[in-house]
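re: that chain from earlier
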Amino acid sequence: MKRARPWLVGGALVVAAGLLSGITPSADSLFDPFLIRGGPGDAVTSRTLVATVAGASFADRVVSSDGEWTAEGNWLIVELAVSAARTEEDAEIPLAALHLDGRVFHASERVPDSLLKTPLHVGTDTVGVLAFELPEGLRAGAGELRLTSEYVTPELDDVIALALPLDAAPAAASAELPEPRIGAR
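^ sequence. v structure.
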């Protein structure tokens, strides 16, 4: 038994080291944002934003509300109701990302009637759309819309992550994008 004891202790130390390295988070995860998740229709509140997805649809062509801007392609249009959570200082969505099938798409900045960079108010919803230009043929899957009030993905801050099932989203040949408006959906 005396000869086996060092081997048993050494084996136990190797197993303990393996378990410890397996549960230790990676260095990258020390700076990851905190995702606050919600489903379709859920009002999700982060430190700076309150957001609800009102609907999603696809279009082959999008047109601004004044008719002066138009674009062809495979567009996903997401209607949202958003507001500022506690303060109107820097209350806007400068970055919106769609995570779909392992890829990340950012909301188009070309769309003039987008919710991107629209000033938000405390206690009053601003209703509008975000438009994502997707690759041809990508019109299904389980997406996740991520919203933040920072221009880059924040470190150690919260991010709203709303589930966006796209399999049943309606499609149209053309869609007019409304200007953001204050008030009920």
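The two ends are 76 Å apart (CA to CA).
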